[in-house]
Each structure stands twice: as structure tokens, then as C-alpha cells.
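User: Quick sanity check before I run a bigger batch. Here is a single chain. Can you write out its predicted 3D structure?
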Amino acid sequence: MNRPARSLRTRFRERRYTPATFRIGLACALGAAVCIIELGSNSGADTSFVPGNATAQAQAITVAPTTGGLNYAISLGISISDYQGMEAQSLSQTIDLGAIGTALEASGCSGGPPELNPKDVPASVQVESVNGNQSQNNSITPATSPIGAGNEAATATTQPSATSLTKVSDITVPGGLLTVSGLTSSSHTSIDNGSTRTSTATSSIGSISLAKGVVQLGNLTWTATQQTGAATTATGTFSIGSLTVAGAKVDTSQLTSSSTANPQTVLNIINTALSPIGLNIQWPAMSTLQDGTVQISPLTVGIDNNTLGQQVIGTNLGQVQTVRSAIVNGLLGLNCNFATPILVGDIGIGVLAGGGNLNVSLGGAKAATNDLAEQSPFGSGSLPNGPAASVSTTSGNTGASTSGLGAFTGSTGTGGLSTPGTAGNSGTAASKSGPKESLGPISKTTACVSLGPSGGGCSGTSAAVPIGLASLGLVVALFVWDYLRQRRRDRLMGAVEGMT
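Assistant: Done. Predicted structure follows.
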């Protein structure tokens, strides 16, 4: 009996698959698809450029008294720029009063107005490129702020690049004891030519005059620069344009950070001689921090561990403590707002008595870049509108500092980098569409590191290729085995039908 020929479609429909065959085939197909997708996403990663992140910070001058383990730093001329991935942000701030400002701006103890109106404190100018290119500036005059004057400017673009420039008006101490002019700081971070991460910070002081011009210093400049990727640079420099003592010019060629002679060697001898009164001078020096940050330290004049003050003033404080307590309690009883002036007085007495220190830091800059890939734990989507993440500055004994890349944290709560400043002139924004959003949480991962000379991406060695090919081979072998098994089955069925 001849059996009519059946089409391939009919035979496919009549084919019976065992559960094991179906599961094996599905698993192999799924494994092959995953590996092929993974292979496609990693293709060419060795030559791709990882934006990474960069940060730059400079400040013109910092006055940092410390007593009782607490720091009361006041900083002038702060410039901060950074980018993370493809988003940039920058900050410019003429003055940061730190903890003292927080106390002065707080409401009076009796519910009255604060001793310092917060509106009189110049707000920082802050921009970021989340919604496009932005630029803002703020011109501060004595009419707009009684405690500071200068100019703040900040720019952020989608390149990404971030730039800030801060200028502070001249400082004059009555009697001609000290005059400081030309206080400026600037910072810049960017990705250049799509292959180089650049971070540069500069602070400069036009001139410093001591004791009515007996000592004059001119054109002091601190610069920190770091580049990674196609170009590699890591430098920190300090220079003095001129130095005059009692009308006589001094050769400044050996006073720069790049000179063969080390000025700190001479200053150490002077510091040893002045150690009884705690006076010391620290010359700017370039250093590389553990996280790779390039830093040029400020020129610091400080009073630390005042031995003479401990012997003359410190030992006698206990004897007058009863009288002091009575005076303080009496003043606070008359007006509780005397608490802040008393605090300032205690800081000064603590320094003179050797129980604290006072550091005046001129200049200083730091710059950092890295090739760590940035990724948000919440994916690429944006979060709903909410409070912007605060990014602030904090000051130590040797000047203002930051805690890391793009996440500046401090105790004063000022200087946020996530929302544009509103005080003063609002400036112009290149993009005004849509609500302002913060950069969002960003965490570093070492899953993607630069391997090539131009800052490459992830390693090209991957197990996806052999696994994918093996999975495809298994699928093909399973199909051939099943096809042969079905043909054999059809032949057997045809023979049985012929016999019947």
C-alpha cells in the first residue's frame, strides 16, 4: 500500500517533541540570544572613550581660626567646576562665612531678627547643564551687600564643560598694616576633542602690602592642572612676580615651586626660631593626594601651639574664670544676643592662650580627573521634581577643600551646585525649557576602566563569544538530531502500514 507523500509543514505539525527536547532547545536559544546581545553591546569597547569625571577648585584667601576642636573658617573667592559623565556644573562664590555666618544669620535668641540679615550675604552663582547650556553672573557692590563686593560668574555646557570665575574687591586693614588687591580664582573642567579629560584651577593675588609697604609681593599665582585620556598632564605650580623689602627688590627666581632651591628649607629655620610664639609660614608645594588629585597648597601664615601664650595667658585663665563667668552671665542677662560676640571673643582668646590656632591661607588650587564610568543606580530615566542635592564647600586650617568628585560636602550648607543661585543678577540661560532637575545620585563603578592610550572602555576579552557560539551549535545539533529521529520514525511507521 502506497502512502501519500506529506508536505514538510504537515510533518512539522505532526512532530512530537518530548519535554526534555523542548526545554533544551529553549535554553540553548535563550543563551545564544543573551550572549549575542552582550557581544554587540561590548563590541569596540577597547577604543571607546569613557567620559569619567573631573573637578577643579580654587580659593583666593581663607582665614581659619580653630579652638576647642572646632573650625570657624571664612573663605573668599571660591571657584568650583566639575562634570560627571556628560553633565557639567560650576559654582562661583565671593564669600563663605562658614559656622560664624550660620550663627550670625540665625534668628535672635528672643525671637528677634538675626544679627546679620541673610539677604546681606552674597549668594553663590551656580549653574548646571542638565537642561542645556547655562551661564549666570552676579555683580556684588557695597550697596547690595555690606559685607562683601566682587563679581561671580559661572558657565556650564553640554560639551560637557564647566567654568567659574570669582573676583573679590580689595581688602585693607586700617593703619596700613595689610592691603591685599587683585583677589581672583577660576576653575575649568571639560572633555576636549572627545578624548581628553581636562581639569584646571587657578588662584591669583595681584599684590600684598605689609606695614605700609615695607614688604610688597606682586602677582602671586597658584595653578593646578590634570589631564587624562589622549593627553596626560599633572602639574601644580606657584610663582611670584615681584618681591620688595624696604624698597629693595629681591630675586624671585628661586621662590617658585619649580625652582631647584626649596624656600621651605629656609622657612623651617625661621619657623623654629619663632616656635615659642607659635608663628609659622608654610610655602606652597605641589602634591598628589591618594585619590590622584593634583594640589598646589596655599601660602599659609599661622599661629599654632603658642607656647608663650600658654605660659602668659593660658595659665592665668583659670584665675579669672570666676570673674569672666559673672561678666558673661550679666551680659547675657541684659541681652541674650551677646552670645555671638562672646563666642568670637572666646575664639580670639583661645588662639592667644595657645588653646587654638589661626591660619591665614593665601591662594591654593586642586584639580582631578578620572576615567571611572558613571552610572545611576536608578537607570537612565530622570526622577520626579524634588529637592536638589546640595553641594557645598568646607574649609580647613589650610584653606577650603572638597570631599571628592562632584559631591562637595561641608558644614555650612552653602554653595549648592545643583540649583542655580537666585541672588543678584540672574544672568542669562541658554536653555529655559522644562523644570530644573538635579544631576541625581551617581555612583562610581570600576566595571569599565580605561585600557587604551586614549582612555578606552571595557576590556574586549569576554566569554560571550564562545558561550554564544556553543549555544548556537547546540541548537543546530538538536535540530539535526530531531530531524533524523523523525525521519527514522516516519520510515518505521510506513513499514508497519505496508505490512498491514
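The two ends are 9 Å apart (CA to CA).

User: Great, the batch can go ahead then.
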